[in-house]
TrEMBL record:
PROSITE patterns: COF_1. Coiled coil: none annotated. This is Cof-type HAD-IIB family hydrolase. Gene3D superfamilies: 3.30.1240.10, HAD superfamily/HAD-like (3.40.50.1000). Keywords: Hydrolase. One of its GO terms (molecular function) is hydrolase activity. The keyword Hydrolase applies. Its EC number is 3.1.3.-. Pfam families: Hydrolase_3.
Length: 266
C-alpha cells in the first residue's frame, strides 16, 4: 500500500524514553517523506514544543497539537493556526476549584501559550523535558482567552481518583476528559481529538483514510488510529491500545516507528 500521510504520535512513540530521536528513525522518516508522503506529528504537546522535533526531522508542514485541539502549519515564515477546538474558562470553573483545593498542579493552554498559577522543582523538570516555558499568572480565570486544553499533572494514584470522581460527578460537563498519559489528564472540547483533526487535514489534502498510516502508544491515539487505514501501536502501549490497533510494532525504545515504516512504506 502506498501511504500518502503518516501520522505520528511523539512522546512514547516517535521519541524514546530519553525523549530522543534516533538517527535511524530520522533517516527512515526522511526517506518516506522524499517518496512523497506527508509526515504529520500528532501530539499532546503545544506547537512550540512540537516544532523542534519537526525541525530535527528536517521537515516543515502541518502539526496536530494539544491532542487534536489545535492544528498548526509551520514553515520558514513562522507558525499559522489552521484549526482549533476551544472552550471558555468559566466552563472549567468547578474543576479549577477542585484542583486548587487538592493542590494538584495544572496548566491551561491557548493554541500557542500555556499558563500556570504556581510551579515547583518537580513541575519545572517536567516542563523542561517537554520543551515548554509556561507563563506564570496570579489567576488563570482572569485571562479571558479561548482555551484549547486544561491539563492536570500528578502521580497516577491521584489522577486515578480524579478520573473516578469527575466521572461520577460529571464535573467536566459537556467537555471531554481523557487520560493522555500516566501522569496527565486533559480536558478539552468534545470535538477535539487527534482523529477529528486528522480527518479535517486529510480532507484538505484530498487524501483518503485508506492512504493514511497512524502510529501511537496511548488512549489519546485511538481515534487517529481508528480513522487511519492502518493504525499501529508500539509495543510499549497499554494492552487496550494494542488490542484496538491493526498491527503492533516494536517499542519506542527499539525504533518501532522506523521498523513500521520500513515494513509498510519502504
Amino acid at each position: 500500500m502506498n501511504y500518502r500521510l503518516i501520522a505520528l504520535d511523539v512522546d512514547g512513540t516517535l521519541l524514546n524514553d530519553d525523549h530522543e530521536l534516533t538517527e535511524q528513525t530520522i533517516e527512515t522518516i526522511q526517506e518516506v517523506h522524499d517518496q512523497g508522503a506527508h509526515i504529520v506529528l500528532c501530539t499532546g504537546r503545544a506547537p512550540d514544543s512540537t516544532l523542534p522535533i519537526l525541525q530535527q526531522l528536517g521537515l516543515e508542514g502541518t502539526m496536530i497539537t494539544h491532542n487534536g485541539a489545535a492544528t498548526v502549519h509551520a514553515d520558514e515564515r513562522g507558525k499559522t493556526l489552521v484549526n482549533e477546538f476551544s472552550f471558555t474558562l468559566p466552563e472549567i470553573a468547578p474543576m479549577l476549584d477542585y484542583v486548587r483545593t487538592e493542590g494538584i498542579h495544572f496548566d491551561v493552554c491557548t493554541s500557542f501559550n500555556m499558563y500556570i498559577e504556581r510551579i515547583g522543582e518537580y513541575e519545572k523538570e517536567m516542563y523542561t523535558k517537554f520543551l515548554v516555558s509556561p507563563k506564570l499568572v496570579t489567576d488563570v480565570s482572569e485571562l479571558g482567552l479561548p482555551i484549547v486544553k486544561f491539563t492536570l499533572f500528578s502521580n497516577p494514584e491521584m489522577l486515578d481518583r480524579v478520573q473516578q470522581e469527575w466521572d461520577e460527578q460529571q464535573l467536566y460537563g459537556h467537555l471531554r476528559m481523557i487520560r493522555s498519559g500516566d501522569l496527565f489528564i486533559d480536558v478539552m472540547s468534545a470535538k477535539a481529538n487527534k482523529g477529528n483533526a486528522l480527518k479535517a487535514l486529510a480532507a484538505t489534502l484530498e487524501i483518503d483514510p485508506s492512504e493514511i498510516m497512524a502510529i501511537g502508544n496511548y488512549y489519546n491515539d485511538l481515534e487517529m488510529m481508528a480513522f487511519a487505514g492502518l493504525g499501529i501501536a508500539v509495543e510499549n502501549s497499554p494492552d487496550g491500545v494494542k488490542e484496538a490497533a491493526d498491527a503492533v510494532t516494536a517499542s519506542n525504545n527499539d525504533e518501532g516507528v522506523h521498523k513500521a515504516l520500513v515494513k509498510y512504506c519502504l
